[in-house]
Design brief:
The protein has 277 residues and is of the alpha/beta class. It has a single domain, classed as Rossmann fold (3-Layer(aba) Sandwich), CATH 3.40.50. The chain is 35% helix and 19% strand. The chain has an 8-stranded mixed β-sheet with strand order 1-2-4-3-5-6-7-8, with helices on both faces. Strand 3, helix 2 and strand 4 form a beta-alpha-beta unit. It is globular. The two termini are 31 Å apart.
Length: 277
């Protein structure tokens, strides 16, 4: 897990800060776009940074421009006087795309970042060409009870103990105000403690969606399968010529947990054909 959080990226094409919605939103661009494919934006998990995707970048960048972002209060993006809410973070991404002159993007988010990616597709459907959601359920009741209980126990009182974690080590390397760590822990705990149910909105998405979970994730794979079915998957034989193959994909990675899914060799094997199709 330490390698996922702190491993160095490939050589950057460029990086910068986008002034969006009161934030100075950090982003870094890797790879080179070819043809008409839009850039792929990567969204890290809670407490993470853009560096979480270091291990998968080599497989994602060939022939594709990849933009990794540090979301509000994470990594190099300093916090502002605003609670963490999926809706606001989604609007930040739409503003970032406009700042980068990208009328359309592909989105891939992991865990907390998967929630941001999904909400961006819900709020800004014309912006998102393809959506990849890794290890995030469309309703809060899908998380295992012990997971929700653990989320509720996080807060400022837990921040000090978390300083021994790889997550804090990665944060401390790049954060503009390292003293904001307790505030990040508190805000993220408050966000993840909220009830939500985006089942109807997620089922109404019209862009191709790739749902990726571990078979030992923080919620049951049957939840992901249910979303897949609501998007039109698993309905009938696609035919020998694949003429009726649904645009939506479902990948349940065997022997994979929420904590190691980003280093699974099966992740890119599932995602890249979907993005390239």
């Amino acid at each position: 897990m330490t390698d996922v959080l702190s491993a160095p990226f490939l050589a950057l094409a460029r990086s910068g800060y986008a002034p969006v919605n009161g934030l100075q939103l950090y982003y870094e661009i890797h790879g080179e776009g070819l043809g008409s494919a839009p850039p792929l934006i990567l969204l890290h998990g809670g407490f993470g940074t853009a560096g979480m995707f270091a291990g998968v970048l080599p497989a994602l960048t060939p022939g594709r421009q990849v933009i990794a972002v540090d979301l509000q209060a994470h990594g190099r993006t300093a916090d502002i006087d605003r609670p963490l809410r999926f809706e606001a973070l989604a609007d930040d991404l739409a503003a970032l795309a406009a700042h980068l002159n990208s009328p359309q993007v592909d989105l891939m988010g992991y865990s907390f970042g998967g929630g941001v990616a999904l909400m961006t597709a819900i709020r800004h459907p014309d912006l998102v060409r393809k959506l990849v959601v890794v290890s995030f359920p469309v309703s809060s009741d899908a998380w295992y009870p012990e997971v929700r209980a653990g989320m509720a126990q996080m807060g400022a009182q837990a921040a000090e103990g978390m300083k021994a974690s790889p997550m804090y080590a990665a944060y401390a390397q790049v954060a503009p105000r390292i003293q904001d760590w307790p505030l990040l822990v508190t805000k993220l705990s408050q966000l993840m403690g909220l009830d939500y149910d985006w089942t109807a909105q997620a089922a109404a998405l019209t862009m191709p969606v790739c749902i990726v979970v571990g078979d030992a994730d923080l919620f049951g794979p049957q939840h992901a399968a249910g979303w897949f079915v609501r998007l039109g998957g698993g309905q009938k034989d696609p035919g020998w010529d694949r003429a009726a193959l649904p645009a939506t994909r479902l990948a349940v990675l065997p022997g994979t947990t929420h904590y190691d899914i980003l280093v699974s060799p099966l992740l890119c094997a599932a995602v890249t054909p979907f993005l390239d199709a």
